[in-house]
Design goal:
This protein is α+β, with helices and mostly antiparallel strands. It contains 6 helices and 7 strands.
Amino acid sequence: MPDHDGCHALSKKTLEDVAASGNQALVQVKENQPALLQQLRNLTETALVQDQSYSRDDGHGRLEERLVETFDIGDLLTDTDWHQSLKIVIRTSRVRLLRNTKTGLWDESSEVAYYAASTDHLTAEQAGKAIRQHWGIENRNHYVRDVTLGEDDSRIRTNPGAMARMKSFALNILRASQIKNVSQATWENALCFDNILKLKGLQPIRFAHFFWPGQWSKKWIYFDFPISVVD
């Protein structure tokens, strides 16, 4: 089930295109669609829950509880463009506890998100699974790129695509080597280049020379280490 989760407002044509392809859509409704979002919120506060599913994950200093509830849209959208496209509403409530390794205390956060589906043959468990799979992609890709690799703060204006592709190369190499914590891996690799050569798919092929002025000297500091490429 495709998830339309970009920065643009959800459009009726998007759902029509999904239906024309023979698929069903599960879409998150965000603040960039304020009227529709408020209608869905109001519905979940007054309508009966059609189905619900509870799940809990814990381990490695992290605990997350999720409650997924589905609601029949009914006649809510009769006078709108969404009437033929959206059939049920999904409300997901998440409570997350993360253990602060410095203080030993638990930091709590919560979130309520609203989704809509173009099919009414969707259980709360199925919806929850699809949403978690989508967030898995978000966490593994977009969050790592935006935060760990600093794309949100990037000020590169000349050919930024080249740097983006270099970051993709780096992420692919780390993923191929079963690296789970990209932030820690990039820090450790920066401290010791030997760690880089241990990554899967890398082989030293030649030596390159890097120079830059010393901070406390006018002389040039010389570094020599192997450059590697992906097979």
